[in-house]
Fold each of these.
Amino acid sequence: MWKKVYEWLDERLGLNDLYKNILDRPEPKGTWWNTLGSASLFLFILQGVTGIFLMVYYTPSPDHAYDSINYIMNGVAFGWLIRGIHHWGATLMIIVVFIHMLRVFVTASFKYPRELTWLVGTGLFILTLGMGFTGYLLPWDQQSYWATTVGTQIAGSMPFIGDFILKVLRGGEDLSALTLQRFFAAHVWMLPAALAGLIGLHLYLIIKHGESHFPSKED
Amino acid sequence: MPDSDISRRGFITAVAGIVGGIIGVAIGVPAVAYLLDPAFKSNAKEAWIPIGKLADMQMGKPYQFSFTRVQVNGWERTSTSYGGFVIRKSDNPNDMIIFNSRCTHLGCTVNWQDDAQAFICPCHDGKFSKDGVVLAGPPPRPLDQYADFRLTNDGVLEIYYKGS
């Protein structure tokens, strides 16, 4: 029965081919260091899912942002768990993505024909940092308020265009409701959408070129 | 295990499936509870509310009272004011009517008017008698009453508030 259903689906969706090409593709002999990309992908999905769940109770307004997070932590069943995973997952994701990048650099996996994979990867790293930067403001407590004050100030210290960048980031001269709102928009839609798109491209390139061998002595 | 039926591949697949399943359940079950949480909560609204000393309530003259209830929904607090009138009919502490001052038409607050001897709603001129019966205007039914009330040992009248 199930076999029949599966065969019907496979004939139309090409599940077997997908499986063979994506999950069952040949790999050079690797180590645990080769698993960091998959770990990053897992963390991205985990952050996405917990983030969507947090949005059920969070509200990005200066009046209620802090209270709503307080409510998530103390009032909602397992709210502490969902937010805890999102909070620590964020830190872990930056660490894992960074070590993944170091591994690719050390094993020289960025060379021909994988230059584009590397370039897209650096974009992914910057977007990940952007997710960390924008997410940090959302609890709207003293720590996040001043961290964002300083962070945007640093961006604003750039010569000539610094003042403009500062205003774009803050949505005006000061850190305000506009800042919180645009950081929220960036955190839940703009950056994740860009991340998802680039991850798709990154994965396509990896599947197309396969993973690189570790360099041997002759290299 | 020399003649094992399990291949290396099958073993890894099984382990990945089991570990993934455990992680999925460990996160999925709390996630569902998290989503459904508000549906399992009831904010108990009922309470005994003290509205005044019986000694202050004169015979035959409506005694006005008001109280405020704070409703907490998640992180939002809404306080709503309620009011009403006590009308004592005799010396017997149980022989009284307690009206809700909310007009039964559209919810404005009615006032007692001594010269008219009636409760008048300022919004659409609804008019209720001392017994709460509609005398004139659009209200569809008599004034609501707080039917449950009690007297504490130190002479304070309390009404049982049910949530509206």
Amino acid sequence: MDIGLLSFIIFLPLVIAFILMVLPFGMKMTRNIAFVTTIVVFLLSLSIFFRFRLADYMQFREFHPWITTYGIYYSLGVDGFSMIILMLTTTLIPLGYLFLWKTKKSKGYWISMLMIQAGVTGALLSLDLILFYFFWESMLLPVFMIIGIYGTGNRIFSTLKITIYTIMGSLFMFVSILYLGVQFYNEFGVWSFQLSDLVQITTMSRTQETLLFFGFMAAFAIKIPIFPFHTWLMQTYSNSPTGGVFILSSIMAKLGIYGIVRFVLPLFPHQYVEFAPYFVGLGIFGLIYFGIAALMQQNIKRMFAYSSASHLAFITAGIFSLNAYGMTGAAFLIVAHAMATGGLFLLTGTIEYDLGIRSISGLGGIAKKAPLLTVAFALMLLSIVGLPGTNGFVSEFLIVLGLFKYNHFAGIISATTVLVAASFMFWMFQRAILVRTDNDVSKMKDLDIKEVVGIFGLALVIIAMGLYPHWFLYKIEPTIQHYLIDILKVGVGS
Amino acid sequence: MKYDDIMYVLPILSVGIGAVVLMLLSPLKSFSINRLSWTTLLFLVFAFFTNALNFGKVFSVMPFKDVFSSMIIIDTFSGYFTSIILAGGIVTVLVGAHYFEKMNMLRGEVFSLLMFSVFGMLLLVQTLDLLVSFIGLEIASISIYSLMGFQKNNLRRVEGGFRYLILGSIAGIMLLFGTTLIYAGTKSTNILEIAKFISSQIDANMILVVTGGTLILITFLFKIAAFPFQNWSMDAYDGAPLPITAFMASTFKVAIFGFILRFVLVDFHELKNIWNDILFYIAILTMLYGSFLAVFQTALKRMLAASSIVHTGYLLIAFVSISSIGESAATSIIFYLIAYFLSSMGAFGMLSYIASDDHVRVTYEDFRGFAHIRPYMAAMMSIFMLSLAGIPSTIGFIGKFYIFTGAIEAGYTTLAIAGILATFVSVYYYFKLIALMYFYPSSEMTNVPPLKGMPPLIIAVMAILIVWGGIGNTLISYFPGIDFLIDTAKFAYQSLFM
């Protein structure tokens, strides 16, 4: 059996993780090896980015029998949409490592991080639904470990909560997958769980399709989270270690969005169009609701958690806007938001590392002690807010445009709300970082060289994507057009 | 010809001879416990390998047909179950000897009783005659009653054993009574003859046969601890010494399923619709009740006992599906049994292994911080829990996939959803243990046995098998993976109808 590039990307971190688990290395050695592994994976994914052909949809296919009795295949592939998330994941993780470098956790931390990466990329590249489910559930375990072992506060309760919550969603999806498989078998006489096969099912009634649609959406809505499935979010984010929040917010939440576009959209195109208004509505509602919730937080981490949820709701609205602007913008915002939020959580982690967990009013005057951190912080905030010149601007602009096309009111509401998000972010920035107070922040240290490389690497990508969006957009546009024209049959809307 | 026949009966024969030999050896002062356990293993391993010789093909023979008058059948089906039962015996001896020795409970007759019960179970899966199956069931049960209560000065054990004895005997009587009624209706106790009778007179009044079948079904439901008959199991499982609980919860259940599958598939494949409605509700209630019990347990042993009721419920889902999709549902039961066997035997085995001299570690709290003291053992325990919960990359996931797909295929989507909900609840009580082991700093656990010797090795082998059964593929072409297991289960099913 020959091993393809995608398999290599998925399983290299996993194999290294198992080797590290057995070998008696110390924490430092483990961390270094893990870092090198992520760099290798990054280089591999870079080669995919450059060899990606615009004319085809699914590329770098790998196809091997796994459980033949039930037609389950080890089937991988990448298209424009998953490629951009793959690039995001493989870029973000090594940069994140530079920030987590000084955390005094044991080697299990780094092993878990590698395993999460394997699970995420596996889910991202699977084209067989059982294989996808396999990775989707497997990545839960290292997350479970990383929050439970290395978290703070009431970590055990929040670990069990997120685990049980997400497993509940996943199990609904699992039944739906099995149901689809059986329907395919009844119609065609052979077993298959291939995405490309399951979309051909024609025998299901609308009611059945709608139920399955919601089965799938349950899993993804919890992962993203879409209002009202967000109740796990706050506790988990505030009790997780920095690495855990970083992964959860910038990568795993995006997988929920990815799952909707990859599986729900082609499998249930009618329902996708039919229920789009509700999800756009929920998205815009979430944007406002989480925005207001963020405004009221006293803790930076909690504030970012809500603002992150607010942006994810916005992305959700974007992918359901049923036109090329909204969807391309959503794809772009996935990347932009992941980088900015990831960066912000990492920076907050540094502050927490130096000063301990504090509320916003307990901070202040950090700018004086740590100018580099302040600059980086400001850059990330600007991207979140959507200042022209950052990738946040391009994506938010595109989504707002898409929502305008979809419905004028939706456009107007989202356009104004995105601006509101700016105010509280800067208010927090002012109180926590800029203005000097009586609080003792003398322990605060500025970014060290590794962190500077990490964060300004991110900033570079953010600005590059903001100034030259076309470099990146042309890779995903054909895929998005394919979704809209061939699958949803709604046209690109322009 | 005769030589071949001997080869076929060699597994059960060697277990039977072993049981008698051990019984004779056990009073001898000069024969130490250690030697006794090795002798037992010798017989069991020998039986296991002679049985394994027939693996990988579909066959069905009746050895010594005249002598036994077609009462014994050796086919792929019985071979499959024989190997699970023998493996169960081997693990129980390995883990049990260690446990009993530490608990100062070890006496020679343990091994003989264990062998007798293995013998009874083998008889149960290798017979074609309802009367012989009654004898097999009783041999197995009586040995287990004694194993439960042989520690005479421990009242709790004696009580558990005695309760099980009374209730179990009633269940046994049901089997006998059912057999009588079926004999009255069909003039035979042979499963094949009964099948012939039923299919030749499908329109006739079958009241005797159906009543008899129902009674036998009740025995079955009792022995697997399905809903209205589950009450004994918590007390019995809790009262028995740990290795015996393991043996009962996993191996005995497998044997019972081996018997009832043959009986229902061969005899009642035209009539089995009659029980479907009631079994449908029994499956749901079993899962519901088991989940309810398991959630509130603080003792790990009781949790595993309660969760074994839930697993019975999953198996019943497939049992209901048999009526519309015979082959794949029956195969899924066979596959799930091996998945459940590995996971629960491993979990119970680990529990008995780490039980220390001064007190038995059985509650959740005893596992607080366990991962920091014994990381490998904690990892294995986690694998068993994940497999029981049906998380992907373990064999438990494939087993559940198989059963739920079958249920949906058979049109019982409600059952599949009920199963999913039970799975969801089970995540709580299985993950609680993992959380306790990993998320707390190490506590002052003393006397934890180190990771060496045979018992941990065999437990580790089971953990590896579980993971391989969950991810194994054709990566290594000649090494059996999931496909092999499913195919074997299919062969086992096909051999029933040869």
Amino acid sequence: MKYVDEFRDPALGEVLAGEILGLVEPGRHYKFMEVCGGHTHSIYKYGIDDLLPANVELVHGPGCPVCVIPMGRVDDGISLAHQPDVIFTCFGDMLRVPGSDGTLLDAKAEGADIRMVYSPLDALRIAKANPDRPVIFFAIGFETTAPSTALTLKRAKAEGVKNFFCMCNHVTIVPPLRALLDSPDLRLDGFIGPGHVSTVVGVRPFEFIPREYKKPISVAGFEPLDVLHAIHMILTQIKEGRCEVENQYARVVPYDGNPRALEVMSEVFELRPHFEWRGMGFISQSGLKLSEAYADMDAEIQYSVPGIRVADPKACQCGEVLKGVIKPWECKVFGSGCTPERPIGTCMVSSEGACAAYYNYGRFAREREVV
Amino acid sequence: MSRLIANAASALAPTCDYTTGCITCGDVAVPMSVTRLDDERGLALCSDDEGNSETVEIDLVAPVAPGDTLLVHAGTAIARLTEEASA
């Protein structure tokens, strides 16, 4: 496939892996965080970690929007789905995320009309086909997905669709990164930056990482050679004593992002004063809600939701996994009480979650042996 | 009982396949080619190399023309791919 095959060339991968080996100092340990769940998935799908020297460690960041959703928000969603006549729409992964009393799938089995959609546009289509029923879209995702929700809400308004509402759970990438960097229990040597978020926000918002925290970052694509190349770039920076933002994914990511997307987002959304992240607590200005101009489409305003904060399950260590403090297999319930079929924590639910990636690509057995 | 039914529904439900990744929830986007334009509504019919087609919002990358390759995430084109950029 064009734009894909050329970034999966095994021969080039071996060349890059050889050069990476030459860039690392023996005896020094390198710990890099891949911010994005999509990178975690690529790393295990293509066995990228097998190509790296033993002293280069990759830890997984909070870049899976499903994994960071707190239980209270799932409960709020389920409560909306049970409102009379409501058609509740959401992305597939969300259906299996446990709230304090079951999942959206459980609610569906109990009679709520919950439908999986692949895009906000699909949800709007359902609203137009069912003009007598309120249709609520459970919006989730980082800046990659937020413009899609924003455009759909604009479209609904322009077309005069009165029965389309949104429960907004969109989050922004910079505040959690800053929270991670301020965390004393996490020592990192660099970041593999999120590729498609950067398509929207650009590379500029990550400049604070080298400037204030003295860590190099390379914004990377999702093919195996992209990830290897990004690691190569970070190691080169370290070797040359540089510390800056680099753009490995320049074929897609402009330095300033997509101004039109940012404009649409600022019209439709505004920052919440704070938003709760699973395992990380409340982070200031890290979540989005609908702006005043779109308040009539805000499901949280038009319907009452419980809004109760629910503590994460005690056995679950998603918080530590999301911060990269522990590896998924170090969690007490990984692979025993918590599996993709019966998840306890969100990291096991989502396809992009670190625990699901470890579980599905056999890291459970291998890492245990290493220990 | 309802939990039993829920578990059965869970097993059968068309959720995202976690072995192949979830395009909507992850930071994942796929290259798609524009096959037809609906200028009036600002939408385009796009298809990928496997023949899957999808109606796509093109507001963020407009103007586009049939044959253009777009990077599509959750039904919205977030970037345009060009030959020079891919080189």
Amino acid sequence: MRSFLALLKRDMLLAYRQGSALTMTLSFFVIAVTLFPLGVGPELNVLARIGPGVLWVGALLACLLTLDRIFQADFEDGTLEQLMLGPLSIEFIVLAKIIAHWVMSVLPLIAITPILAISLNVHADGIWAMIFSLLIGSPVLSLIGAVGAALTVAMRRGGVLLSLLVLPLYIPVLIFGVASVEAAVALMPMAPHLMLLGGLSLGALVVCPFAAAAALRLAVE
Amino acid sequence: MSLHAQSLTCIRQDRLIFNAVDLSLNPGEILWVKGRNGSGKTSLLRILACLLKPATGIVSWNGTDIEEDPEHYKENLQYVGHQDALKMAMSARENLEFWSDYTGNSTVDQALDAFQLQPIADHPTQILSAGQKKRSNLARLIACPAPLWILDEPVSSLDTDYIGLFKDLLEKHVRNGGMALLATHQDLSLSRVRQLDLNQISEVAR
């Protein structure tokens, strides 16, 4: 546990000190979401209807920007192989890095979502639903993303391949995430959608660290 | 406490690197792995550090195949590779503190003293010279002590004084019952050293 916490703390410290990644992600999210009203026009009803989808897609694409950093730096500077020689199993190394990525790259996106949701005229119930759905569903973005990042870690310019690998796997999260917000806006129960999102997160939590660990073992060899 | 390797063969991307390498290492011994570029020194050291699987052959630690209990073996080794494994956004002290926390040790100051890093310990690693980075990496050997040191080109980038310092630390480690395997092109004139020449093995393999 001490090793796990040490790694988690170090990764969060590095993400904080190399603040450019966070600034880039947040800026991309804000700009991407702001472009939609300019493209589709300022009608409030239209914005309110497409708002949840726009926010989910924006968060998903913003998250993609930082995925390649989960393992890349550690792989290139030799830290990854030293970590693998330490007391922590590779699966837990992966898990610590996924948690650090989620906290430092995805959580800030969730934090600014309400402001962007207001700018898109999303209903107040929808904003709460948006936050809940992102909190429950967004771990899948880091978990599946980590598998893609591990598969492409040894490739130069693997970012495009990473996107191609990961984006199709994000579709279920996007569908249920948006559906939960639309259900809340329509005053329908959103619990089934949130439970499905929770199920996806738990399923990814079980499978993804093992898949990413297997890919990293191959990459280090 | 002993390390034995029997009939190790390494094949990388269908190319035979070396064949039938046997070696043994006991406490108080240093094994100097020699060979030309491409003779397989790094591959051999990575196999012995559990980072690469041999095509054939067995590595055993205290008579037990390391595949059977890799965790126990890893607790007993420190590997220093070509890369420095340092984070540029952290100081040398912070890097060492992380590794000692991660491995459950607490001898950071001792390690900084041993490699004369105290004056630059709190400087960001990105402003350190290549030699200072190398010493910060080598300091991990003291910060996270282990009986078996596996060292790949440990003195590259070090000046003559620090090569002498490293040599003294290596000999002290071995005198205290440790053991070391190192690959280097530089003759360190170490005492208690045995040699393994991969050139001869590679020639036979080809």
